Amino acid sequence: MSGYSLRTPGKGRSYNLFWKTFFFIGLFATIAGLYWTTQQVDYVWRWERIPNYFYYEADLDITTGIEGQISSIKKTGQNSLVLVRGEDNESFQYEVPSDSLMVYQGDSVFVGDTIGTKKEWKMGLLLKGLLITLKVSAISIVFGIALGLMTGLARISANPALRMTAITYIELIRGSPLLVQIFIWYFVLGTLINSLLSKYDIPQVPPLWFGVASLAIFAGAYVAEIVRAGIQSVNRGQMEAARSLGMSKFYAMKHIILPQAFRRILPPLAGQFISMIKDSSLLGVIAIRDLTKATREAVATSLQPFELWFLCAVLYLILTFAFSMFVQYLEKRMVQR
Predict the structure, then answer these.
(1) pLDDT-derived band of residue 337, with 50, 70 and 90 as boundaries?
(2) Contacts of 119 (CB under 8 A, 6+ apart)
(3) Last-in-domain residue among 108, 123, 138
């Protein structure tokens, strides 16, 4: 089995070389034009600051936890062991880099006083946002597939109650904007659910899970229609043949119909989930620090909108492109079977 192509037969190597050259010339011209445009703007580019938004070395204060006196300071290599003894003979020992030591033996200290600093590598704002986006997208895709599969099967069910429930869900979700649904999940349903949980002293649900619910339910409605179309595209005779061999409808659907339908629905499913990865940027409106919200916070503190928004776009492109390549890999594996 080979994929269909619109290539015109008879076109030679020179034809392909000409149009490939035309493509690369256009690409380089676009990049050069964009670069020239950026140079015309009265703006100081600071790309050297960008790595700090992924990982940076922070100075952390080492503070005392008790009130007392520095009873001893012992140097061990590049660090010093500082022993703080309290009035009731309670003592704590702190390891402090010697070059950052701020106290001497015999000094009196109070709770929260800084006795030194240490350097520690910490995760930057954009990397945290990227990980949140990955987490939300991955969980939403899993739940979206499960919900869409069940709803798609209910959509073509002979049971009127299941069929009408599925149609109602699909039309309600697809007929309203995702941003409105996010607001409803967080400000309405979230408030009601957390109020009820707090009434019975049950831990509240974090905002991230309301974001996951809104994305999964939104994607599930579209996946349901993709699944329905994929199942109905399989020849009806496949089910009749399976039933004639004594298979139940469940096993025929599981082993005969769904494997064939999955090959056909994989490309539109990939497109739907790529859109969902980008739609996750809307979750910043409900206090979820995803990649877009983290970029907005970074821009507000650094006043570097050009570099950070370009970087944000590239990171989303990397996510969606990687997912697209993974789906293409699955398609090739399924064709080879």
Answers:
(1) low
(2) 57, 58, 59, 60, 97
(3) 123
Which two tokens mark 221?
A: 């409605």
CA distances from 247 to 62, 235, 241, 260, 276 (A): 70, 17, 9, 17, 37
Convert the pLDDT of each residue in 222-232 to its tens digit.
Answer: 999 998 888 88
> In degrees, to the nearest 5, what angle opens at C-alpha 249 toward C-alphas 244 and 250?
140
What does the buried/exposed string (b/e) look like for 44-61 if buried means 16 or more CB atoms within 10 Å of the residue's CB? Answer: eeeeeebeebeeeeeeee
Write out pLDDT tens, residues 105-140.
888 888 888 888 888 888 889 999 999 999 999 999
Rounded to whole angstroms, the Cα distance separating 278 from 272 reads 10
Q: Which residue range forms the structural domain that includes residue 282?
A: 125-336
8 Å CB contact between 56 and 125: no
Asked if residue 260 has pLDDT above 90, the reply is no
Q: Which residues pair with 199 in a beta bridge?
A: none
Is residue 258 domain-shared with residue 233, that is, in the same domain?
Answer: yes
Contact between 298 and 126 (Cβ < 8 Å): yes
Please identify, among 123, 138, 155, the residue that sits at the C-terminal boundary of a domain.
Answer: 123
Tell me the C-alpha distance between 2 and 108, whole Å. Answer: 80
The CA distances from residue 326 to 162, 188, 223, in Å, are: 34, 37, 18
Partnered with residue 97 across adjacent β-strands are 79
Q: Are 250 and 282 within one domain?
A: yes
Q: What's the mean pLDDT when you consider all of the chain?
A: 87
